[in-house]
Amino acid sequence: MGAPKAMIIPVTPFQQNCCLLWDDATKEACVIDPGGDVPVILDAIAQAGVNVGEIWLTHGHIDHAGGAAALAEALGVEIIGPHREDAFLLANLAQTGSEYGMTDARAVVPSRWLEAGDEVKVGGLSFSVRHCPGHTPGHVIFFNAENRFALVGDVLFQGSVGRTDFPRGDHAALMRSIREELFPLGDDVSFLCGHGEPSTIGRERQTNPFLQD
User: Fold this and answer.
1) Per residue, what are the HEC states of 123-161?
2) What is the mean pLDDT of the chain?
3) How wide is the angle at C-alpha 132 spanned by C-alphas 149 and 186, nearest 5°?
4) Burial of residue 18, with CB atoms counted within 10 A of its CB: 0-12 exposed, 13-18 middle, 19 or more buried
5) Is residue 3 scored above 90 in pLDDT?
6) Distance from first CA to last CA of the chain, Å, rounded?
7) d(C-alpha 109, C-alpha 40), whole Å
8) Cβ-Cβ contacts under 8 Å for 155 (sequence gap 6 or more)
9) Are 155 and 142 in contact (CB under 8 A)?
10) Is 106 exposed, middle or buried (0-12, 13-18, 19+ CB in 10 A)?
């Protein structure tokens, strides 16, 4: 059974958790949500001694996708995801970046859009794709059932949930995504999120103040 290894690389002024994820058995890797600071990400890849084959995006916000085009070019790899409902965000990355002083951001057109039920792989590790709208309309998460591990982007955090005050944000949809897509994964599932510390589904279901009825 392959074991996932992950390195968190904080990027951009938003301290977004870019993730370098790899199969420890094969050293095959992917980068999830390279929001910017591409030289820092490239240094981390070299330090880990892994071979990156793809970039995965959970959603189209600048702090998650702003560095994707430059990183894909530097590594010669494809960008996978998110769901096509986030195309409007990816098309406007350069403009959004300039508003935040992130002048390196470029528009992204992924090689493959993701749908609910799709599967992505890194080495011998398979991740199922779940469409979790609310923070953005095209947000997806990645779940590895074998190792009870998920990458949830900005849907759920330790002690908080994703913001919905951005264009096409929808709080009711976000709560539905958490309850119908994340909770059923199981309380024992550990997750990495787009900002802050990791947690488990069970801990958040029981203690997260935004999720108490």
Assistant:
1) CCEEEEEEECCCCCCCCEEEEECCCCEEECCCCEECCEE
2) 97
3) 35
4) buried
5) no
6) 38
7) 23
8) 132, 134, 135, 139, 141, 161, 162, 174, 177, 178, 182, 193
9) no
10) middle
Domain count, the chain: 1
CA–CA separation, 192 and 188 (whole Å): 13
What is the total residue count of the chain? 213
**C-alpha to C-alpha distance for 213 and 113, rounded to whole angstroms:** 34
Instruction: State the residue range of the domain holding 80.
Output: 4-211
- Residue 52: give its domain's CATH number: 3.60.15.10
Q: Which residues pair with 157 in a beta bridge?
A: 160
Is the pLDDT at 1 greater than 80? The verdict is no
pLDDT in tens, 38-52: 999 999 999 999 999
How far apart, in whole angstroms, are the C-alpha atoms of residue 33 and residue 117?
Answer: 20
Element (H, E) at 20: strand 16-23
Residue 78: φ, ψ to 5°: -95, 155
- Cα–Cα nearest to 111, from 135, 74, 80: 80
